[in-house]
Amino acid sequence: MKDRVALMLAALWWGSLTTIGFLVVPMLFARLGNPSVAGNFAAQLFEAQSWIALLCGLVLLIHFRAKADDGMTPPVLTALFLVLAAMLLALLQQYAVAPRIVARENLKLWHSVGSGMYLVQWLCTSVLLWRMSGGQRPR
Questions:
Q1: More confident residue, 48 or 72
Q2: Residues in contact with 14: Cβ distance below 8 Å, sequence separation at least 6, in sequence order
Q3: Which terminal Cβ of the chain has fewer Cβ within 10 Å, N or C?
Q4: Closest alpha carbon to 63 in 8, 113, 14
Q5: pLDDT tens-digit profile of 76-133?
Q6: Of the candidates 119, 109, 98, which has an alpha carbon nearest to the alpha carbon of residue 39?
Q7: Quick check: helix, strand or coil at residue 119?
C-alpha cells in the first residue's frame, strides 16, 4: 500500500511539472498576448508547483528513508538522491531564481537558468517515476 501511495506521489510530481511547464505556461504566453500578464500568471503557477514538489518530495523522502532502514540498497540510494536533487532544484528556483526573473534582473540569463533547472528537476522526477514503476524498484 505504501509503495502505491509513493508511486502516485511521484506521478503527481512528474505530471504537475509536465503540465505546468510544458503545456500551461507556454499556452499563457501564446494566448494572453501580453508577456507581463502571462509572466505574472506563470510566476504564480511555478510557485504552486514548488509547493507541490516540496510536499511530494518530503513524503517520498520519508518513504525511502523507511526503506533505507531495512538496508541501503543501490536502488534506494538512487531514489533518495533523485528526490533530494529535485527538491533542491525546486527550492533554488523558487527562492533564488524566480525573484530575479520577477524583478526582470538580467531576464535572459535568469530565465535560461530557471528553465534549465526546471528541466533537470523534470528529468529527476522522470527517472524516479520510471524506476518506481518499472523493473528497478527500490526494495
A1: 48
A2: 122, 125, 126, 128, 129
A3: N
A4: 8
A5: 999 999 999 999 999 999 999 999 999 999 999 999 999 999 999 999 999 999 999 9
A6: 98
A7: helix
